[in-house]
Amino acid sequence: MIILATLAHAQSLQFMLEQTVLHTYPFYYAKGVVDFFISRHNLLAIQEDIMRHQVYVYEKDDEVIGSITIKEDEIYRFFVLPEYQHMGYGMQLLRFAEEQFIEKGIEIRLDASLPSKDLFLSHGYKERAYRKVQLDTGEFYCYDVMIKQQEKNIESQNVRSSKYSFQIMEKSV
Description:
Number of helices: 5
Low-confidence stretches: 153-173
Strand content: 25-35%
Number of domains: 1
Distance between the termini: 37 Å
């Protein structure tokens, strides 16, 4: 069941995010990038998004197994615990989020990490830009800005600039 997250979910969400990142990201990114990603999605950031009513959780048998954050024109922080991946839970979360954008009639935007890019491509998302962020450690965090047009989209939304405090190199796709 997909429900709006409450502050009582925050620690479960942080645990789920860390477990998912630690399970998957080391196959794609250097350790510094994995650490950066976990620190970027810390408990305070999760709590702030919950208080803005932007976070939804997928609960199964009273356990949080997935989550998705829906911002103005962006899908953000989309995770499913590794043991529940490839079972349809993530697709239910993604469809739920997409319905929110259809109601608004706007284009969906998201930043796709290397492990998630194929999933989004297979569900109609298109590459808008490629970004490469150099961390203080010298390592690079690479991802794609992706979009999906909705039928009711009246005018295209511009991709917002990154809020990172480090150097960003961008190549349009």
